[in-house]
Amino acid sequence: MVSKQPLLRRIVIAFVLMTFCVSGLFSLSIVAVVHFIEANLVSQELDEELLGVLQHDLANGLPPRLDSRTRFFASDIPRYAVPEQYAKAPEGYSESVDDTNAVYIFKRNINGQSYLLVQEQHEFEEREVALYRAVLAGFVFSVILAWVLGLWLARRIVAPVVRLAGQVRHRDQLHHLAPNIAPDYADDEVGHLAQAFDSTLGQLRKSLEREQLFTSDVSHELRTPLMVINSSCELLEVAPNLEPRQRVTLQRIKRATDEMGELVQTFLLLARSTNNWSIEGGTSTLGALAQEQGARWGEMIKAKGLHFEVVDQGADDTSYNLTLLRTVMSNLLRNALHYTEEGTVRLVLTADGFCVEDSGVGIPPEQHEKMFQPFVRGQQARGEGLGLGLSLVKRICAHEGWTVNVKSLATGGSEFRVILKAV
Fold first, then answer.
1. How far from the centroid of its chain's Cα atoms is residue 11's Cα?
2. CATH assignment, 279-419
3. Is the fold of 7-145 the same as that of 279-419?
4. Second label for 156, Cα 20 to 30 Å away, from 41, 98, 197, 263?
């Protein structure tokens, strides 16, 4: 699992953990060496003193010549009887430490008799405790120092990365004249990252340039033939010798031309990155647009044998982007027309938006979210579309801050609800 901790924190943690392990191992090594040296040196010293007492002092009838800290005991000499607390001491070197007494014990068994040297170690114990405290203090200090140094080093290490991130986030980097950022960095990992960003940014600039050229071409090249077709339809509409069938076909051509013009305008608004794109194309209230779309789609819905109504449940006078709101409402009404064979289609206006209700085939709950994905159509597809209408609705709502969702009605059919946010 990849850690989600900040890079600076991870560097500090790694630095502190490394110091903790190294200092801990070093401190434990000191303690182990002290114990090893203590056991071996004291054991050797007491062994030599005990042999001297047995071979020289006692053999010559002299008392043991020992310092004030060392005492001699023997199991076969009543004068030097072994105290009860030392009687069970093992042969060789051992220690006895309690709250009031701390001694070294060295014991030899010779011909079934026990001989002991007992040496006080209070002074050595005090020095040993002082040493252990110093080792512990050094360990704690090294960990704290590692944290401080790790934080300082981590900031210096991360500084180029933070600087690079700031340059990457800067909006002016997308400008065509913005210089490359790789020359500002050394030939290291951060420099390689900056080079990769320059390369990727160059490709992004080219893509944006192609998109800008495309939107410019669409704006000029597509609108011109659409205007020609629309003008020709208007001229043909006043021709006196058109047959009813020809006039119906002409109206279909004009309606398709208008829809194409609206789609071109919608795609241009979505493609542009200007700050005022949300108000380009004019504004309209929800009620006015509902009357327009009701008149436009109501006739086709009724021609299919369906009942159509526009219900106003308190729509306010807030203005919205005309082109985008028209595209959203038009696509939802078209969708209801295609997927409803009998019953009713309702356009309901509310205080926070609108909804389109139908009594059509409905959408299974598990497909509600999928219906807004590109090229996804219902199980009982209708019309000649490619499944992009609801995807376009979702995209427009996302850009405008609106919300669109679908739910199944208890009476059958579906309800598409759009919650609007004012310009």
1. 19
2. 3.30.565.10
3. no
4. 197
On whether the pTM is more than 0.70, the answer is no
**CATH for 7-145?**
3.30.450
State the chain's mean pLDDT as an integer: 81
- Is 2 a residue whose pLDDT tops 60? no
Higher pLDDT, 249 or 238: 249
3-state secondary structure of 4: coil
**In sequence order, what are the beta bridge partners of 58?**
none
- Given a cut of 80, whether residue 75 has pLDDT beyond it is yes
CA neighbor of 371 nearest in space, from 411, 414, 410: 414
Of the candidates 80, 84, 110, the one whose C-alpha atom is nearest the C-alpha of residue 96 is 84
Distance, in Å, from the CA atom of 77 to the CA atom of 94, rounded to the nearest integer, reads: 22
Residue type, 404: V
CA neighbor of 337 nearest in space, from 310, 363, 311, 358: 358
Q: Who contacts 213 (Cβ-Cβ below 8 Å, separation ≥6)?
A: none
- Domain coordinates of the chain in residue numbers? 7-145, 189-271, 279-419
Once rounded to an integer, what is the mean pLDDT over residues 114-120? 88
